[in-house]
Every structure is written in C-alpha cells, then in structure tokens.
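The aim of this short unit is practical: by the end, you should be able to scan a pair of folded records and say something sensible about each. We start with the first protein, listed as its amino acid sequence and then its structure tokens.
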Amino acid sequence: MPNIKIFSGRSHLDLSQKIADRLGLVLGKVVTKKFSNQETCVEIGESVRGEDVYIVQSGCGEINDGLMELLIMINACKIASARRVTAVIPCFPYARQDKKDKSRAPISAKLVANMLSTAGADRIITMHLHASQIQGFFDIPVDNLDAEPTVLKWVRENISEWKNCTIVSPDAGGAKRVTSIADQLNVDFALIHKEQKKANEGDCMVLVGDVNGRAAILVDDMADTCGTICLAADKLLSAGATRVYAVLTHGIFSGPAISRINTACFEAVVVTNTIPQEDNMKHCSKIQVIDISMILAEAIRRTHNGESVSYLFSHVPS
C-alpha cells in the first residue's frame, strides 16, 4: 500500500498496532510529551508530504488530553503537506452530549466535530456512534462502522442455545439495533422500559417481551457505570431467563462498574476493544473481548483505495 502512513495517539496503542499489522504497515514515528505546564507537544518523526495519513486515537482514558493530542497531530500533518488526513476514532468522545436536553446544556459532540474539522481532518472513521445523527454535525465524510457482524459471529460461536434466546435492549433507544440482530438470528426480541431519574441511575424497569425459559442477551452501544445493565440483568433473571449475557460495543467501565459486574448475574459481559480492557479483565473474569481491529483496518484499506466500505456493515473481514 504506497503513499499511506498510520500514526497512533497514546490512548490505545495495542489497537493501533493490530491495525498496522493487519495492513502490513509499520506505525509512523511520533513523539508525544508534556511540558512542565501540562501543555501537550507532538512531533511527527517522518515525512508525510503527499501521503494519505490515518491517525488512530480512541476516546478513552484521559479523554481531554487524548482529544487535544489528536487535534494537534491532525494539524501537524496537515501543515506538513499531507494529501489527506483521516481521524480514526474507535470510540467517539463526548458522543452522549449530542442534544440540548435541558436549558443551557451544551451540545459538546457538535463542538468536538467542529474542532476536528478546524484542525484539518478530511474524513472521520468511527465505530458505533451513540447517536448516528452525530454524522450530521460534520461537513466532511464520516464512516460510522458497526460491530454488529462481529457480535452475530460471537453469539453463534459462543452461546450454544442461541437459537432459543431473546435479544434484549436495556432501553427503548436501542430497540432498532436489537430488532436488527434478532431478525438476523431469527429469534425474538424484548426491551426494558425505564424511567431515568438521575444520570447513570436506572429506575422503574418494565420488561416488554418474553424471556421465560430462554437465554437473554442484553445488547447496547456502551456501558459506563453499568447500573442500568446490572438492574436489567436482575429483571431478566426474575422474569425467568435461564442465563443472561451482555454484549456491548464500548466498555467504558468507570466508577463502580467492575464491582457491579462481579456481583451481577451475568454469564459473560462481551465488549469490543475500541477501549483497552486489559486491566478490567484482570479484575473481572466475566469480561470477554471481541477484536474489531480487522474492521477498522479493512475500512482504512478500502478508503485508501477508493472502494466502498458498505460491505463492512454486513460482513466480518476474513
């Protein structure tokens, strides 16, 4: 693959390395450091003139530092005469702040979109945005990839009773995604209606659908403090589910999340590696990880070669 360079920010070096290995490339040289006053300094260590540049940085860990690092790297490549700069953001930061849901609330996802465009990004590749309308915050192309094909593959290979299961959404907002997965597996779906009184606290859960005598698979785009999915798991078990699994695209797992998962009734909590999970797996044996580096690598390859990426919405690259 000529005229292509891949650089990695510090948020998820392991995923960046897997993407580069998959493409048969070496990660570009970049030095990131902080001055004593905590300003971020980025030095691109090789020529990018006329190159198709991809910068991998996920929205995890020190999110604000990671975002600033990404913006500086994009701008550094742009003013060094890169032909095109694409930001590969597996987990998009501030994605939950996507609407004005109360007076004087900021729409921070739109602000991040503006910052990326202003820095000089020509294209965005991301994975399962919290709200797909975030694509409309950009005036540049956005490829919103989906982990659904890998989720379907994992369910068929790892849950023996998958033909007699129910796919469950922990809230009404995920109903469309759940019905899509249920249709492809040819199984039933259910959803849990909840009234959320405080942020990160679910309350008044009502199950709509039947899980009695079946395995229940909770599917959501992300889990942060895990209060909602743990309460949902208890609700499903009390409704007669034989086993409860959770399948999530982004495992943020902040605050009491790991202790909640350890005490909850899950058989397994399955997440993709858009966010590093090594430390979480050491403290929780229930967490399993699906590798999505091949999806991002194939998206990069197809974008570089001017091919369609729509194939990735229904297939797992071999």
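Turning to the second protein, read its sequence before its tokens, just as you did above.
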Amino acid sequence: MLMVSSASCFLLKPSFPAIFFCSTQRTFFSQRKQLTHGCTNQISKDNPVQGSGILNANETLRRRFLLAVFVTTSFFPSLSSYGKTKSKNPFDEKRLLEQNKRVQKENNAPDDFPNFVREGFEVKVVTSDNYVKRDSGLIYRDYEVGKGDCPKDGQQVTFHYIGYNESGRRIDSTYLQNSPARIRLGTNALVPGFEEGIRDMKPGGKRRIVIPPELGPPVGPSTFFSSKQFEVFDVELLSIQNCERRTIAFYSDVVCN
C-alpha cells in the first residue's frame, strides 16, 4: 500500500478496495495501483467517466454505512434497564411476603407480628389495622395503656423488653435474665426509636414498637448490628422514678427514687 503525501487525509474503509480522500489535493488510490487527481470541490471534467465512478463509490459507501447502522440496531436493541427504573412485580411481592411469614412461623414469632417484604435495600412493612404509624416512621401497637403520668427527661424508667429482628427471631430479652432494664431519659442512652416509643407510655402499659433503620442503632464493625434492619420490641413499662444529683466532697452521682 502506497502513502499519498497530502494534507488532512482521512480513510473511508469499504470492504474492498480501500480508497483514500485528501481535502487539499483530492487523490484517489486503490489497491489496484490506480492513481487519479482531482480538485477539492469539483470532479475532473477531463475524465467524466472516472468522475461518475467517484460518485458511485461515495454512494456505495453511504449505503453500506446506513446498512451497518440498521443491522447493528436490529441485533443490539436498547435494553429496557437502561435509564429506567425496574418495575415492581406484584407476584414477587406476594412471594416475598409469604416467604417472610413462613420464616416467622418457624421462629415462633408472636401473634400479629408485622411482616417485612424486603427487596434489596427497600423494605415494605405489612401490619394489621391495630398498628399506628407516626410521621417519624415509628410504628407501634398498644396492648395495655397503663395508668399514671408519662416519663420525662431526667427521670428513670424501669421496663422489661423482648427484641426481635425482621424474621421474628428473638435477639434479646430481659425476662430471661430476670432483671428489668433501668435507663434515664434524655441522656442519649437509648436507641432514638426506642426512646420515642417509650416516652408516651404509662406505668403498667405494654406496647410493641417497630423501629425503622433511620431511628435504629448505628451499624458497623464496632457495633452489635451489622446491617440496617427494622427492629421490633415488646415493651412493658414497670415504673417511673424521679432522680436527683448527690454530691459528697469530691464524689458526685445521681440517685433515683
């Protein structure tokens, strides 16, 4: 293959033969060693036959290019997943719901336990009409309201609880330890969702609290929780105590009665 010294050359590559076009001095060179010169903007008038051959070559190239584009788009159509959100299939949602119910039954989850339809990071909570959902995302159900006043910041609450995960498996219980938990409110000692759910309870009240990941505990290697999931707690508020700070010499502590 010979090289033609001319400025601004580019290659249009049909199947055979190969033809080079130059913008300054139009030069056509084929693999059959035929060399023809022509002007930039017009076809040589001295050789009209060769000029018609050039037009035919251009037309052939254009047709082959259009045919290649048509064949490419036919064999490789645009996928529906590009630029579009995957549509939810009601059948898959029903299947995931039945799967969660089956797992909860195997884990001996309590009655009227909420169901969780998880698909990736998206979770849909399915509950009965007995549950109430707040604007914060917290979901709860009262089994017993209790009597008296609700706890306030600085007061200590004594309560029993049973913790569950989304599959209905029990993860913790103060009943098994035979020792209720005691926490002062307003000290950031509780999970945000747990503290929100217990603030408007009364002594003797029993409530089931469904805590979303946004109000749940922090996750990571240094914590007990390894992933963002919904947590369910059955809480029984036993009593509320007032607290005051006591200082003796250089020693200071908080005493709750």
